[in-house]
Amino acid sequence: MKKIKILLFTVFSLLLCTNMVGQEKSISGTVTSKTDGAVLPGVSVVVKNSARGTETDFDGKYSIKASVGDVLTFSFVGMKSSSVTITSNSSTVNVALEDGDNILDEVVVTALGISREKKSLGYSVANLKGEAVSLAKESNVVNSLAGKVAGVVITQSASGPAGGTRVVIRGNNSITGNNQPLYVVDGVPVDNSGIGSANGSNTSEYSRSDLGTGISDINSDDIESISILKGPNAAALYGSRASNGVVLITTKKGNTGRGLGISLSSNVSMQSPLLLPKYQNQYGRGVDGAFAADLSQLKSAGSWGPKFDGSQQLYYTGENRAYSAQPNNVKNFFRTGSSVVNTIAISKSTENSSLRFSYSNSKMEGMLPNSSVKRNNFNVRASSKITDKFTLDTKVTYFLQGAKNRASQGTEGVMAYLYGLGRNVDVNDLKNYQDLTQGYGVISSTASGGNPYWILNQDKNEDFRKRLTGFAKAQYDFNDNFKAFVRVGTDVVDHQTENVTATGHHFTPEGAVGYSTFDTSETNYDFLLMYNKNINDDFNLTANFGGNALHSTSKYSSIRGFDFKIPGKHFIANTDPEKLRVSQSELVEKKVNSVYGSASLAYKGMAYLDITGRNDWSSALAAKNRSYFYKSASLSLLLNKVFNIESEKINFTKLRLSYANVGNDTGPHQIVNLFNVASNGYLGNVTVSSPNVKFSESLRPEDVTSTEVGFEIKAFQNRLFADFTYYSINSKDLIFNVPVDPATGFTHFRDNVGEITNKGFELMIGGTPIKTDDFDWSISANIAGNKNKLVSLIEGQDFFQFTSNNSGTIDVRAQVGEGFGDIYGTDWKRTDNGQLLLTASGRPQATSERVKLGNYQPDFTGGISNTLNYKNLSLNFLVDFRIGGQVYSGTDSALDAGGVSTRSLEHRDGITLDGVWDDNGTLTPNTTSITGQQYWGAVSGIASEYVFDQTNVRLREVSLSYKFSSKTLSKTFIKNASLSLTGRNLFFIYKKSENFDPESSYSTSNFAQGVLYYNLPTSSSIGLNLNVKF
Amino acid sequence: MKTIKTIIYSASLFLAISCTGDFDEINTKQQGFESGELSAKFFITETQFNLYAPSRYAYWRAHLIHSDRFAGHVTFGHDKSWWNDGLSYSFNGGYTDAAWGWYSGYFGNVKKFLDLTKTGGEFDNQNMYATGLIIKSLYYQMYTDTFGMIPFSEAGVAGNLTPKYDDQKDIYIGIIADLDEAMALIGSDTKTGDGVNDLSDNDLYCGGDLQKWKKLANTLKLRIAMRALGATGESFATAAINEAIASPLLDNGTGSVTMEKDVKIGQWGSAAYGDVWTSFGAGSDWTMGATLINTLQNSSDPRLASYASPAPGGEFTFDSDGATADYQEQLDFIIANLDNANAVYTKTISGTVTTVTVPANQYIGQPTRLNGLIKPMVKYDMFSKPSDLVIQATGKGAPVYSEIILTSAEAYFLQAEAAVRGMGSGNAQSLFESGIKEAMKLWDVSSGDADTYVASQAAANITTGTLEEKLEKIATQRWLASYTDGFEAWAVVRDYGYPSELAAGVSNPKIFELGTLNGNYPQRMRYGSGAQSNPNYAQAVSAQGADVQGTKLWYAKN
Question: Does the beta-carbon distance from A801 to B150 stay under 8 Å?
Fold first, then answer.
């Protein structure tokens, strides 16, 4: 470690003191848009085949040092790149860029916000334009990455609009820690921790609510581009939190050119359930083929009655009703969801400054009755060139969100009272959920007592979020070779929730009300020194040195009251003061200080070597382990140049090699064990409780090492390209609450244990098969596979259990020698020679031991996207797929047991199972017949019947856009206009699971993945998008 | 260039060194205490209430679902219940894990108290340490009687992450040794110290009275030794019993050791039955077991009204139209149960409909272990519920039953058993009567009613009969006196085989849920799935027998 540090500093010192050579001169100029002549600020200007670059200022002006013979490449997102060779008499180079895409000379945003030529990078980076996520809008912008970026697994929590999403890049590396990437917006990290049980380490299946995470607050209309730095190689400069990769989001600046620019974007979309369970419509409520004897039997009965005959029969309301099917009773509960998003952006540039203001208003009405999310998003970006050398850049975003009735998922969530509805129950009857003449109690069709309309109308589930994000950055350009900036960025979130269970609720009949607030903040102070110099004709060197101080805080408080004195109004003073529960945390702080440096050496435009080093000092670790160093090195070799291959067919071949090692610390307050005083004591006596988790001062950072090899090729005038990556990630010293035998006095020890490996590949192939003046078709396909293995855990301990279900039939674990997310469950009980071992009464049985039934991580993911352009018309469609990976569906099990699923039609009339039973040691062939109800009652407890393959292919995204031609618009005050018809999640092309979207989840945390209990259906959305620029 | 270098070096130095000054401070939780800032007595309270009245999750899943139901005191499986009463007689992994999690997880509470009070500990106090040993013994008796072999000798040994499982016999010997040590440490002391060193009110069991602690310890020793008596390979029980009965035990002077419930703390701090009854859905409600109600009723036991409230009664209809083939047998069973309870009722049959009218104010228990097929016919209002005192909602200002830690009644019953077995010099009948009277005191039965009962009821008379008949009566009284203390009641049934109606298990699959026990009486609970990661688990299973509920524990064999 020390050696590397010394080496690094030496490199810097050398670099700074060497007399530089080379025939350099200053080149300057202005970059404009060919379409409208407007100046373009923020255009990347790089010296080709070097690591040197700059950006145009607000007037589209730039200045850079280059030598004669160098090629300057100008690139800008959404425009075709342009290259100019420097001649001996060129000192001013003005460029006009055309609209369009470019593939070859791609410039991407890399760590620390530095724009680089993609070909110079020794690791893989994926980038997307803002349009890719803002056109077919998702309320959580990261959902739009699905299928577009190889090696990224997106799991959307099925919780309605603006919910959370689990994003895992190149597999899971930590068992109980965070496995999701770091999100960085304009250089400032955004706190992505979610609030709500779906994001925590809660493992119960009852009720999970997801209130979204930091990234779901980003307005997609403000996004200029997204870069995904996969794995620690690309992210070694961002510190611990980047060990799972980084998603870099660059937002729009005022860049419409001189004068005033106004743009309007309006998006309207409609949502409906993509998939609901398949129901039978032949049998209604009853018991073993007979009608229920009385109301109490009826209420606990599934749909196991006789065949529908229309006769008048007892109904759950106590009346008699026609005994007939209600085929759409589940579907009719949902309404068409709608989403209206309007954004206005106004920008104004003057000679030395630019300003962009945007306001976005979203109103999303969920598919569940009485559920909605409303958002207001204000964004101001201002940059000013104070002197020739000194620039100030600032941004403030204020985000307001109010959500109502975000559905809780799970066996006590809202869907639990809908999906299993008796097949002859009209869902509209449930709208009568309370009869005050009969008391406050909920009216339910079942003995369990719940009613979904009650939950959505009588109870209350609201949350409000205010988020202020911003930064101020001051840059000073000492000269063309040396620049520096200081920046402070902050992200402050205030989150409040309000929950009511009304008097008469089926679980808390006396009612309850709770309020809570969570305040979090994260502030980053950083500086960066950037140096660039041509050492000689062959070598170019870029070096950066920076420091960062991170300060994050969180604070929590809640109050809960129980037992309403006077039912009907829900506030604390109306509850029993004896039962009041108050909790409040101190201000929890964490600080991480870092210094880092990077050096990039470019040789003749054919070889690029990058090395980085970073040292962190984290307050979350004890003094002796507080400081830790990590490093990376990467190499990019342009083989065709190295071997001097000139080919008409092959335009470009590149080999990438990289290595990185990153540390990963832990949360605050995890080192010193303290005793807690109970707020209420016992009979007035002070009571103190002892911790169950034993902390350790010797906790070290987790250690993630990644190596990556990649190969890229472009051929036929860049009409065909392919990019292949193989990576291997090894995570050691996982920080982990190791479950120990409670006889040690603790239930868990916090320790560094175990090792996880992730190995995988990413392949992207694409091209432009057809290209004419009027028509072109481009296609891009990607596939990625990841193999995860838990190599070791701790002596004597061979698995860690994430979650197990209430009835104990299933658990999800990390198993030594196998993977993260293995699903273990019960199977059919069989004799040694494979016959079914039945009970004496002829019923199938589940094994008491759980066996491995699958793993929730998919084997392969990917997508195929197509873009067809004909004149002003453009059609995009994305088909994405997931191959392998399993999920256990508790919903399917319950629907079979309740006799409502189509599957429960099997053996309706009874069956004598082919098997044996144990007659006091003698295996006797079964002759006893059981009813369908008995059969499915038993089968529903056999977990292996409910583990489904996640393999599916779906039409993820379609958009048809028309861009009004400048000719048409030339006589109007409109500069630009486009209209798009979009669709998301339109249909499955293929899937293996019958009743649910196999990619949905009811949690975004490591806990409770791989199991589904009464999730909300995924929404399928169709929308219209209008963009106008004035 | 120099300037730049200076900037770089000073910046890194600044960040790296001067800014880490407050790191230890911000990484230390302010809302917590180090032991030096506290007193030992603060630690005993939670250690005590967590053992008998933990939060609702454990109270519900470990206590009510398993012990109280296995004891036959209470049942599920009526038509309003979420479950049929076969629940947990068929192995249920989720509820088993919950119970195991509570039992095994409790150890940390008592270990911490022992560590703090032991010689050389932060609060070095041998008398407090002694009370800790007695709490540990109460805990281990409950814990081993539920699961059998568990880690004992290596539990809490620093550095040992995988303690071995000890034989139940060795655990019993160990508990007795701990109790002996505790009693020796207490000697003739009366309190643990002065001021903050006096446990006083923080001690929920004995109010800081060390001599009561000592009697509690001795009574527990007697219970443990009596339970071990006659088990395979034991050679310590007789001596321990003789030692115990020669020393002071809980009696009518000390009264029982009980723990007053805090009705304000809330169900997630410390639960009561009323929290489940009133704050959970109605489907969680339970009824009184027929064996308990019939036993009380058949001997005109004055505790009946304290234990249970009468059945609401009403008109109940049963319809054979469209019903299953077992309808008639099931109906006959329901009606036979009314007869067994000596209930007054009328039955009319009209076509396919049978109407049974049961007048209010009768005590009728519900047979236990009923299956899902008969469940709709098991009408909730036909059966007695627990008394208001037992299911009283907390936080309403109304009194709630106290938790039983160890009763003076138990001390007398154990001495009575010693006497009928010819050990010591006590008078079995008078000890037995004292036990019954002490047990009745717990439920505020008047002394006149108690006197009438012991004077008139055969159940209170062990002057005649065979040894086995006398043991049955003693066991039955212990089982009755353990109402709301299902752990002990269940252990009594397994140890003595009484009430025999429960111990016999069930056999008719048309009425009862035979479950994974095939109808046999549950002899233990299975270990939780978390236990299996200790490599010694396998060794325990091979020594003790299969990890199933039917495997008899050491003390219950023979």
Answer: no
